[in-house]
């Protein structure tokens, strides 16, 4: 069993003893801390909640709702929803915050409480630490019987979210309808199965093949939308009867496409393609995290903008986007953040923008993919023993490559002429994650192996 408490929320596997898994006691304790923090921070006794379709969702939702009511907080429950839908609902409902009950791309046994501030954005590191401290110290006081919070269920917010997408100036419904797209959707039996087909119909897509779109929470495959996990939709597309495939994760904040021949468009290139379209209409700056493809930088420079890298994590990307007034940004995991809409990863907004781009492009999705610089990212890790000082190793690697451009806002990223490598330590394990990118797959792999060998040499030298 696993339980991970972090500044962004609490995440764990269902079952087990208190403190070892995501037990009802842990859920109530953490919801109490968050609710108390909202009341102190904002004075606003209203919180929006929503959940993905995973099997434990209803149980977790009822625990969270009752706990917030016990604090005197009014609960607005969107029920089966998406992460970006809850993010949009918080300011629209003038709430003090929001909780999304989802473990995102994690497998079926996991669930989590993801925490939002009153803007509908993820809480900051400092705010997360304050909530963790409240939970640890059990620093909360519950309401008297006549001051308990009220509960209301709102079931129309996915429709309101879809209308929000349709109303975006850069989403051209007429252009999409005119292309007569035939689209396959894999929503991993979660809430994307409600939202995505409904959005596509609103966009004028008449032929929609639904795969795993019944929100039972019984995931038919690993829910992370990586090429090795989406073989079923790839095989269906390979038969040649559809224009493209759309894949979302359980809470619908990550978006991946599949080409008409069944080959992956590439999750890293979701943001690249959407940014290309947005920048063509509204020139400006872009942001992604340090581990995302450099193709976004290439596209940004092509349109006359400036690209900036942020530390890994949505909240860090959002902060950097605000700092440089970015018109589009996100993460290479298929996360689109479009500030004109809201500061959160949103697959529905991404679909609207991408399909408009593809419709106006006038050719196949595979030709669109071929129009972008082709890079390969190699993802590796090296496991170390607990007594090894990971920070010291990263410092040694930084010194070894000091003649190259170095970014150390989040681990160590080394920029070479046409390649980069990014080293990040795990917050929970003695592991260094090593991402490398090059125009050549073999070069990306070679670069990763070279850095791993460097790390091993540093470790062996420090132990002499």
Structure, described:
This protein has 464 residues and is of the alpha/beta class. The chain contains 15 helices and 20 strands. The strands form 4 sheets. The chain has a 7-stranded mixed sheet, sandwiched between helices. Helix 5 packs across helix 7.
Mean pLDDT over the full residue set: 95
Task: Indicate the radius of gyration in whole angstroms.
Answer: 22 Å
Residues in helix, %: 25-40%
In DSSP terms (H or I, runs of 4 or more residues), the helix count works out at 15
**Strand arrangement, major sheet:** 1-2-6-5-3-4-7
Largest sheet: 7 strands, mixed
Distance between the termini: 37 Å
Number of separate strands:
20
DSSP strand content: 15-25%
Secondary-structure class: alpha/beta
Uncertain runs with pLDDT below 50, 5 residues or more?
none
- Backbone shape: globular
Helices and strands in order:
Blueprint: E1 3-6, E2 9-13, H1 24-42, E3 46-51, H2 57-70, E4 74-80, H3 83-92, E5 97-101, E6 110-116, H4 125-137, E7 151-153, H5 157-167, H6 173-179, E8 182-186, H7 192-202, E9 207-211, H8 231-238, E10 244-248, E11 255-258, H9 267-281, E12 285-289, H10 295-302, E13 307-310, H11 314-324, E14 326-331, E15 335-337, H12 347-361, H13 365-370, E16 376-383, H14 390-400, E17 405-407, E18 412-415, E19 420-425, E20 431-438, H15 441-462
Parallel strand pairs: 3-4, 3-5, 4-7, 8-9, 8-10, 12-13, 12-14
Antiparallel strand pairs: 1-2, 2-6, 5-6, 10-11, 14-15, 16-20, 17-18, 18-19, 19-20
Helix pairs in contact: 1-2, 1-4, 5-7, 6-12, 9-10, 9-12, 14-15
């Amino acid at each position: 069993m696993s339980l991970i408490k972090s500044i962004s929320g609490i995440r764990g596997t269902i079952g087990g003893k208190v403190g070892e898994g995501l037990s009802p006691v842990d859920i109530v304790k953490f919801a109490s801390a968050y609710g108390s923090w909202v009341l102190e921070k904002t004075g606003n006794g209203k919180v929006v909640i929503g959940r993905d379709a995973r099997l434990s969702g209803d149980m977790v939702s009822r625990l969270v709702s009752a706990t917030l009511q016990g604090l005197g907080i009014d609960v607005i429950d969107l029920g089966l929803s998406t992460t970006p839908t809850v993010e949009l609902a918080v300011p629209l409902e003038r709430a003090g915050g929001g909780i999304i009950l989802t473990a995102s791309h994690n497998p079926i046994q996991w669930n989590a409480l993801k925490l939002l501030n009153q803007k509908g954005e993820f809480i900051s590191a400092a705010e997360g630490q304050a909530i963790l401290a409240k939970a640890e110290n059990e620093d909360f006081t519950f309401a008297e019987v006549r001051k308990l919070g009220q509960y209301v269920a709102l079931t129309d917010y996915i429709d309101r979210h879809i209308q929000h997408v349709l109303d975006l100036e850069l989403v051209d419904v007429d252009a999409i309808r005119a292309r007569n797209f035939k689209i396959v959707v894999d929503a991993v039996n979660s809430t994307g199965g409600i939202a995505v087909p409904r959005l596509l119909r609103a966009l004028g897509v008449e032929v929609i093949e639904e795969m795993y779109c019944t929100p039972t929470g019984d995931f038919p495959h690993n829910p992370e939308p990586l090429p090795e996990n989406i073989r079923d939709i790839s095989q269906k597309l390979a038969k040649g009867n559809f224009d493209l495939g759309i894949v979302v994760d359980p809470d619908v904040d990550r978006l991946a496409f599949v080409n008409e021949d069944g080959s992956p468009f590439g999750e890293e290139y979701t943001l690249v393609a959407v940014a290309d379209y947005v920048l063509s209409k509204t020139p400006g700056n872009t942001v992604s995290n340090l581990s995302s493809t450099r193709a976004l930088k290439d596209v940004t420079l092509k349109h006359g903008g400036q690209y900036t890298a942020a530390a890994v994590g949505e909240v860090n990307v959002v902060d950097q986007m605000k700092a440089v007034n970015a018109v589009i940004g996100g993460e290479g995991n298929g996360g689109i953040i479009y500030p004109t809409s809201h500061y959160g990863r949103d697959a529905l907004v991404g679909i609207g923008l991408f399909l408009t781009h593809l419709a106006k492009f006038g050719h196949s999705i595979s030709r669109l993919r071929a129009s972008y610089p082709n890079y390969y990212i190699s993802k590796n890790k090296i496991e170390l023993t607990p007594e090894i000082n990971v920070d010291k190793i990263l410092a040694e690697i930084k010194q070894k490559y000091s003649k190259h451009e170095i970014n150390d806002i989040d681990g160590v990223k080394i920029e070479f002429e046409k390649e980069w490598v990014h080293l990040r330590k795990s917050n929970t394990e003695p592991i260094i994650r090593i991402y490398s990118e090059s125009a050549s797959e073999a070069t990306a792999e070679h670069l990763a192996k070279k850095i791993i060998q460097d790390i091993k040499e540093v470790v062996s030298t420090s132990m002499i």
